[in-house]
Amino acid sequence: MRERNVSRRSFVAGTAAATAAACLGTGALPAAKALAENVDPAGEWVRTTCSPNCTGACGLKGFVHEGQIKMISQASDYPFEEYNPRGCLKGLSINTMLYGPHRLTKPLVKNDETGKMEETDWDTALDVAATKLRDVMDKYGPESVGVIWQVQGTGHIQKGSIIRLSNMMGWSAIGCYEMNGDLPMFWPETFGVQSEELESYCWEDSKYTMIFGSNVMVTRLPDAHFLNISRENGGKVVNFDPNYSATSEKSTEWVRLKPDTDAAFALAVAKIIIDDGLYDEAFCKNFTDMPLLVDTTTGKRIEAANVAGLSALPSPAYRTTYVAVDANGRPFAVNPERLGGMEGCTLEYTGDVRLKDGTTAHAKSGFRLLRESLVGKTAQWASDTTSIPVETIERIAKECATIKPMHIIFGGAGTQWYHGDLKGRSLALIAALTGNIGQLGGGISTYVGQYKTRFIPASWFNPPRMNKHSMSFQYAVTGRTETMQPNAFPPNGLKALVVGWGNPMDQHNVANWLRSAKESGELECLVTLDFQRTTTVDMSDVALPAPSWYEKLELTTTPLHPWVQLQQQMVDPPGEARPEIWICKELATHIDPSYADQWPVFDESQSEQVADEVLRTLLANGGPYVNQLTAEQLREGPGKLWHANPGEKRIPFWSQIHEGTPFPSQSLPNAIDVTAPFVRSGRIQFYRDEDEFLELGEQLPCYKPAFEDTEYKDDPEARTKYPLAFITRNSTYRVHSTYVNNPFMLELQNSMPKIFMNPDDAKERGLEAGDLVEAYNSRGKCQGGLVLDPGMYPGQAIFDQGWWSEYMDGDSYNSLIYPWINPTNEVYYLSGVWSPNMAWNECACNVRLLQKGGARKEVMQ
After folding, report:
1. Does pTM top 0.90 for this prediction?
2. What are 795-828's pLDDT values in tens digits?
3. H/E run at residue 149
4. What topology is assigned to 711-860 in CATH?
């Protein structure tokens, strides 16, 4: 493996001051003070926001002198003191990237003869990009141009420009939430929403927190202290993890379980809660589908319109009136437009219901079917499946049912399996049975990126002439499936990509499809906007240099906290880099001059002024969430998003539980009538009666083991050839592939990718710490220095994702992964809400020796 040690001396002098900020972040105060004192005071501090899709959205301030950012520090200006300070070493040392060797400062166009990217002027770059994109649009239709942007909350003005461009051109916006593997499908399946979560400030209100698939202490650095506050307040934090992680170390209790068996544990807990009478009966009756009757012959819910003596209640077309039974055994119509008032119904029912056609349906309530489905899900069964001791399962079941508020954190590592939705549905069942949903400090949350739309962005995203499309990226690799929704992928396939602020040639090169498609010509055009010269830039046809988040005006939000913030232009972008709002406008008019009337009229020098006008438009038209905020206020510091519930902290599903509003809550930017059909009852739905769920036996939450429906079904020999799970986890040193080239971060990792294994697995293969090894399967391979971790559960090979290809001798770690599509993910299609989710962890591999001692021993400690 080629070692890469980037010397900090290779950066401009202004970078040295970044060390001061880095030292401040690590406690080296004397060194920081000495460096800071060398900064010329004749400058200014500018407040901005670090926003690389880590969900932190940390307020920072930079000291600007002579046109350069000399120092970065935490702003520490949040009105809620518990949020201060926010910011980590990655963001504080970004100077090394702003002024580093990978900075993209000029437009690049590929030389077709040499295959190399060459510098050019803006007119040439835009002409080439426009010609290639127009050619694809003419041959295959505009929807065959896919757009990748990372991601919603990290930018609404500049990044929003690419969505405005896509929506006017008829290109297909690729759902990055699911492309990233971050879409927890249990949310739309159970609650009818995209996702929901407590803001981190609410963690301190939880008295019992259970964590599954989330290494909070690594991936949520600026918010992790709220878990500690919860413990200090007397709360208990229980981390369920196959591996002894940083979060395991900081939790009250670490429960080690076999990978991907979370659902088995959750089902056993649900059984104990029900059998011991610990469930919240009133909550189950009033807010869930458990009282609703199901025809046991068809597996379908019984509709009031079909029952003798009943009729459907007035409701919108996206609702269905179903049936429950009262205390006297009489069926009645359940209002789908109003929750509550169901205390007198029978939760557990078996009997016959007379239908209008003269036949009789044998019916059972959802709760009765649930109880029957859990008959074999004993603590002993769960122990055999998960390796968690029986007594631990029984104790935790009683604790989480009786200690309130109880909160479940279900992270990306849990969703990114083929049956990730079953885990989420099973865990959500615990939250509902215990009545914790809609309570301060209670419920279930998922934290995966800045995916969330927190106000209405239509005033900028939607141009006057709309031609809006979307697509699911996975079908580009798998091909069309028999069970897919026809509008989930363009009829002529994906033929061009416009990429903004992402690195898909590393991050999404599943089964090596993207690189192979570009090399073969199947992907005919690749245009990239970025501020770094990534692997994707080097594989592009055209690369357009954009600003970093310290060189432009941008509006940011995050699901993790309630603050609306600005990125403010501290300095001009270097070289010929241009704001995205100008780039997208120019690209549109180069493709077709008639699109000029879809944009404000301005030249490059007026980009900041126009961005400010867009900011004001977004605030004025963003709905009650932001229309109380002003641009002037945000230039001074963070502004708080509006929420409907009383109190200073936002509580998901407050109006449903406390005011009787039906599910779902609104998943912006979608209207309620778009997502409400996912839960036609207006209730939390644990029973799914669509044909796909019935055919797979997944109408209720259940457990299915990893690989049986994917790797082993595809190749029965994979069970022995590839006995390890290949897990690509998030690193504390990067945000996906951002900061991979930061020399401070590289130094902390010895500039070397690593593969982590349990010592017993390594010994079985004759491997030792410090060996250069390769993880491989039939699809791809990647190499790294071997680290032995006795805290890891056996049967895994873990790789910290995000490494650019140049640090890996050209390897692509995602080439091992296949984008398996679960048919339940295809029942509906709404980009970013109900769509096939990338199952990164559903990947079997093996590990072999490349070079004995090929990695330096000191690197592997």
Report:
1. yes
2. 999 999 999 999 999 999 999 999 999 999 999 9
3. strand 145-149
4. Barwin-like endoglucanases (2.40.40)
